[in-house]
Specification:
The structure holds 2 protein chains of 2 kinds. By secondary structure, chain A is of the alpha/beta class. Chain A folds into 2 domains: 32-149 and 285-353, Response regulator (Rossmann fold, 3-Layer(aba) Sandwich); 152-278, Rossmann fold (3-Layer(aba) Sandwich), CATH 3.40.50.2300. Helix content of chain A is 43%, strand content 22%. Chain A has helices spanning 2-30, 46-62, 86-96, 108-121, 152-164, 178-193, 212-221, 232-244, 264-267, 287-300, 306-324, 332-341; strands spanning 33-39, 66-67, 70-78, 101-103, 124-127, 144-146, 169-176, 197-205, 225-229, 253-256, 275-278, 343-344, 351-353, 359-369, 372-383. In chain A, the strands form 2 sheets. In chain A, strands 7, 8, 9, 10, 11, 12, 13, 14 and 15 form a 9-stranded mixed beta sheet that branches. Chain A has a 6-stranded mixed beta sheet with strand order 2-3-1-4-5-6, with helices on both faces. The termini of chain A are far apart. Chain B is mainly α. Chain B has one domain. A two-stranded antiparallel sheet of chain B has the order 1-2. The termini of chain B are far apart. Classes of the chains: A alpha/beta, B mainly alpha. Chains A and B meet through strand 8, helix 7, helix 8 and helix 9 of A and helix 1, strand 2 and helix 10 of B.
Chain lengths: 392, 293
């Protein structure tokens, strides 16, 4: 009797276990892909971090909230643009939240810290801004991608443009830090390949903005042209000081695009007519740019900028990878292979990934007109970063 | 470096030094006379710059465009704020340790940055120099010198003179100097030392804000602009001797010269030459060039 009574129970238990297992399996298949945003949400770069996240989310929304058939779950950590906290912050996402994909960041020092952890833990990482050459150079890894640019790229393109304009001798000026050195390095390569000669490299300690002594130095060196790398407040001050010193009338000034991006309001007349190079510009006419701009305006009631565009493309790149593995984010080898082969239909124009996972992209020559960096032409088509030091 | 370039660089050095003096004089007043380490001094400088940017449209709307009126209004506001801050926070700090002063004034930096972010946003802003100062003077065949920079120097020199006269030649200055050397004695002679300190503090804030407003058209207005100025000002105050206005002037000019020529002659070490100068001077005179009191 007892055994008879027990039997149905055991059957039930067995059935239940089976059902649970089946449910568990189905659950794993439909589980959300965990995306970890490690971006600056406070401090000077807060607006950039938000723009990147907005861009990324916009792409996912356009796909009906799913990539590769899977829904996404977002985790956020404010990196405060603080390199010293980078490892701790990225571990919050990797170890605590166990994210599948890291998206970040703006500050190059923080991005290098992220890349180190991503390399060690083999977590997929997409860098939507930071330009440090090393991210896709010495630090490159199969699981690390970038959808923005390397500091070398706009610099190299401007070197070529300035040489083509017939400038023979140039002086460079930047803050003495990695991004400035890399940008000037790229410039020198492009300029000297075109037959020019860098007369002197001038630097200012970062983030010092007292330029008067160096403007005097430039005037006494009398070069044909000046190439600079500055961003933000320093860029505004430099462009205004350069004009106030009267040098803009005699020695043409050129720069990497950041010199006039997001700063034109404050630079006013002093920036008019300045030529810069970047992988994005105002007045692009491709179809994707139009839909992206309209979509972003509708979603956030604001004009998208270069950072929003890079975030959007980070979403596209991840989407291309997840589509190939039907959302199975743990299946990393084919996922990475698909991302490597993808052609991203970006608002900047289509781009592909280099061997070291940096965009192979057109660099535009832009001219400041009013409050816009209007595209003049393509300075270099399909420019790839040389990825020095990358062993992959 | 030919003679013309050398002379222009000297002009640059003096001009930069004078601007440093204007900010540092307020710091040395507060630090030297009241004994408070005020890390928030850079924030007052930033506050001034944002006043120059933010008040100009209001002044233009109500009184017509006037740079001088903006300066006066901003200065009055800054002095009021300084007065209120002394009453609310700093008056409790005089008898505390330096560590507590550092903690509280650092906290104030965070509060000011957050307020700035809420009220004015995180963007970079340009401030236009008034039309009557917008011209420039040709210096060499290539280079011109903006008149506005000369105006900055003139304001700094004038402020320095006023400070000197007030502190050395007036009754108020005498009380301030006496208060710095012996607080209790001054109090027992029937002088309201609390009010005196409040005035000195408000004046210190006013000086920093004035420097920020005057500098705004050339420095532009941006988040965290105070922190850079703060460090170099502490260097000036320490070199000059804490509390000495004369020391601050000499030290500012020294720092201006060393920084300007350091950038040109030793670009690799430009970041450290100023600190080397400080180290050498402190080895030679541990109390700074001019020890007051």
């Amino acid at each position: 009797m007892k055994t008879m009574k027990r039997r149905p129970g055991m059957v039930m238990a067995g059935l239940a276990t089976g059902l649970l297992l089946a449910a568990g399996g189905a659950g794993a298949q439909g589980a959300k892909v965990k995306v970890g945003f490690m971006l600056p949400y406070t401090g000077t770069y807060a607006a950039l971090g938000n723009a990147i996240e907005n861009g990324f989310r916009l792409y996912v929304q356009e796909q009906g909230g799913k990539l590769g058939g899977r829904e996404l779950e977002y985790f956020k950590v404010d990196d405060e643009s603080e390199p010293a906290k980078a490892t701790d912050n990225v571990n919050k996402l990797v170890k605590r939240d166990q994210v599948d994909v890291l998206v970040g960041t703006v500050h190059s020092g923080v991005a290098l810290g992220m890349a180190k952890v991503a390399r060690e833990t083999k977590t997929l990482m997409i860098n939507p801004n930071a330009g440090a050459d090393a991210v896709t150079g010495a630090m490159c890894a199969p699981n690390i991608f970038r959808t923005s640019f390397s500091n070398w790229q706009p610099g190299y393109a401007m070197g070529k443009v300035m040489a083509e304009k017939g400038h023979k001798r140039a002086v460079t000026l930047t803050w003495k830090y990695a991004a400035g050195d890399e940008s000037v390095g790229g410039f020198r390569e492009g300029f000297e390949a075109g037959g020019g000669k860098v007369q002197k490299d001038l630097t200012v300690p970062f983030p010092n903005v007292e330029f008067q002594a160096l403007l005097t130095e430039i005037a006494s060196l009398k070069p044909d042209a000046v190439y600079v790398f500055f961003a933000g407040g320093g860029a505004v001050k430099f462009v205004k000081d350069y004009a106030a010193a009267g040098l803009n009338k005699t020695i043409p000034l050129y720069g990497a695009g950041f010199l006039t991006d997001g700063t034109l309001e404050a630079q006013g007349d002093a920036a008019q007519g300045l030529l810069t190079t970047l992988h994005y510009a105002d007045g692009l006419t491709n179809a994707k740019e139009k839909t992206f701009r309209a979509g972003y305006m509708a979603a956030y009631k604001a004009e998208p900028d270069v950072y929003a565009m890079q975030g959007y493309d980070a979403g596209q790149l991840l989407g291309a990878g997840l589509a190939a593995v039907k959302g199975d984010v743990k299946n990393q080898a084919p996922l990475i292979a698909a991302m490597e082969k993808a052609t991203i239909d970006s608002p900047r124009g289509p781009f592909t990934m280099s061997k070291a996972h940096n965009p192979v992209q057109d660099i535009y020559l832009r001219k400041v007109e009013g409050k816009q960096n209007k595209v003049v032409n393509v300075a270099i088509k399909g420019l790839a970063d040389p990825a020095r030091g990358c062993k992959m | 470096m030919d003679l013309a370039t050398f002379l222009i660089q000297c002009l640059n050095a003096i001009q930069y030094g004078l601007l440093l003096f204007l900010v540092a004089s307020g710091l040395t007043l507060i630090f030297g006379i009241m004994g408070v380490i005020n890390l928030a001094h850079g924030s007052f400088y930033m506050m001034g710059a944002y006043f120059a940017y933010g008040l100009a449209p209001f002044v233009a709307a109500w009184f017509g465009e006037s740079f001088v009126l903006t300066l006066v209004l901003g200065l009055a506001l800054a002095v009021l704020i300084g007065y209120a801050l002394e009453w609310a926070f700093f008056s409790f700090l005089y008898r505390r340790e330096h560590l507590q002063q550092v903690l509280m004034t650092y906290g104030l930096i965070l509060v000011f940055e957050e307020l700035r972010s809420i009220l004015a946003g995180n963007d970079v802003h340009g401030v236009n120099a008034p039309a009557w100062l917008a011209g420039s003077i040709p210096l060499s065949d290539l280079m011109t010198y903006p008149v506005y920079r000369l105006f900055i120097s003139a304001v700094c020199v004038a402020t320095g003179l006023v400070l000197y006269v007030v502190i050395r030649q007036t009754r108020l200055g005498m009380m301030i100097r006496a208060g710095a050397s012996n607080r209790e004695m001054v109090q027992s002679l029937g002088i309201n030392i609390r009010l005196l300190y409040r005035i000195v503090f408000a004046a210190g804030v006013g000086l920093a804000a004035l420097a920020g407003m005057i500098a705004a058209p050339v420095s532009t207005v941006y988040p965290n602009m105070g922190s850079q100025v703060l460090i170099i000002c502490f260097v000036v105050v320490v070199i000059g001797g804490i509390g000495s206005i004369r020391g601050a002037l000499v030290a500012s000019l020294l720092v201006g010269i060393v920084d300007t020529f350091g950038k040109v002659l030793f670009p690799e070490g430009a970041g450290v030459v100023v600190y080397l100068l400080m180290a050498v001077i402190l080895l030679w005179r541990p109390e700074g060039l001019f020890r007051s009191g």
